[in-house]
Give the backbone structure.
Amino acid sequence: MINKTLNEKAFHLLKEKMEQGLLPQWVITDPDIYQLEIEKIYGFTWQFLGHETELKEPGSFVTRWMVNDPVLLLKNRNGEINAFLNSCTHRGTMLCTADRGNKKTFTCPYHGWSFNTDGVLVGIVAGNKVYGDEMCKEEWNLRKIPRVESYQGMIFGNLDENAESLEDYLGDMKWYFDILLGRSGGMEVIGLPQRWVAKANWKATAENFAADPYHVQTTHRSTVEMGISPEDPLYAGYGHQVVLENGHGINVITSKTGKARVPFQGTPESMWPMFAEHLTPEQLDMQSRVTVFVGGVFPNLSFVSPIHGTEGHLHNYLNFRMWRPLGPDKVEVWCWFMIDKAAPVEYKDAAYKGYLGSFGPSGTLEQDDTENWARIVEVSQGLMMRNKELNYNNVNNYLMGLDRVEPDENFPGPGVAYPTTYLDAIARSMHEHWLDYLSKGLFVKEESK
C-alpha cells in the first residue's frame, strides 16, 4: 500500500513528537491514517464480540461486526460457540440480518442456500438439477473467523490466525477482569446492547474511557450541580492510573481518604461473602475500597463499573462498550449492561434504571461526551491543524507532567500504577502501541534495522 500521509519523514517526526508527550492533531481524522488503522490495527488485534450469556441455548445467535467484517456468532447443538463471516459463500449476500434469535439453519435470501450451526452447507435449492453429484459441498461451508477465544465469559475474535492467544494479549488486565467479571461467580448481559452512531473518531472515544478521568469534573458538571457527584474538583482523580501491556489500562478510582463512599460499590451485603470466595485478599481489598473502575482494552473496548442510581439510591453495574469505526469521523457505539448473576432481581432492575439514566443515547453522561467528541472531529481537518499539537504531557511537565509522577511501588495489583488518575500515562501508552501497529512493515528501512 502506497501511503501519501505517513511517509518515512512524517513517521519519524510523529514518533519524535510523541516521545515529548505531543500528538499532532491531524492524525485523528486523516483518511490515509484511518485506512492504515483498519488494515494494520484491526486486522491483527483481538476485538470484543459479545458475552456468553447472550447465547443461552443451542441455536442462539447474535450478529456483530469486526469493523467492516460481518460476524455471525452462535452456539451449536453441542453448546460450542462458533463465529463465522456473515456472508453466503455462493454470491456473498449477508446471510443473517437479524440482531439475534434462535435457528437450526440459516438460509440465504438470495438463492436459498442453507447452513447449519456448524457453518456446514446443508441445503441447495434444486441442487441435484443445478450442480449434480459432482459438487463438493464442504468447499462451500461458511468461512470461520480465524481465531475466537473467551475469558471470563467475554468472547473475542481475531482476523489474524497467527495472533497470540487472547489470554496473552490481555496480560495483566486479566487480574482486574477477575474482579470485574468474576467477583461473584459470573456476570450476565441484560437486555440488548444499545447501538447508535456518533460523530467521533474511535481513538478519541477509546481514550476518553480508558485514560481520561480528568474530563469528568468539567464535561459532566451537570452531575455535580445536581448533587450526584462531589464538588471536589479532584474527586475523579483519587486512586491509581494503571498502565498495562499492549496499550491496555485501568483507573482504580477511590476517594480522598483512599476508601469508597460506600463499601463494595453499594452492592447488597448478601453478596459480599461471594466476593471473598472468588477474589484474592488483594483483589477483595481493592474491590472494597474502589468507587469506580474505568479503563480499556486496546484498540476499541472500554468498560466502566460505577455507582449510579435514581431517586437518591446508588447501584453498581458493569458497562462494556465497543467503538466500531465507520470512518475517520464516525463511530458506531455498542453498549452492554452487565451485572452479577447472583444479584437480587430488584437490585438488577434498579441498577439497570441507573445505567439508562447515565449511559446510552438517552443517558446524561453519554450526551456530555458525545458533544465533545463531535467538536474534536469538526475542527481536526483544517489546514492549520497540520502543525497543531495535542498535549499529553500534562501541560508541559508541570506538577503531574511527563515523568514527574513516580509509580506507587506499594500498589497491590499488577501493572505500572501511578498515585493519581489525573495523568496521561495510559493515553501515551495507547498512542505508542497505535504507532507501533501502524508503522510495522510500512518502511523497509525500519524492518532492516
About this structure: The mean pLDDT is 89. The two ends are 21 Å apart (CA to CA).
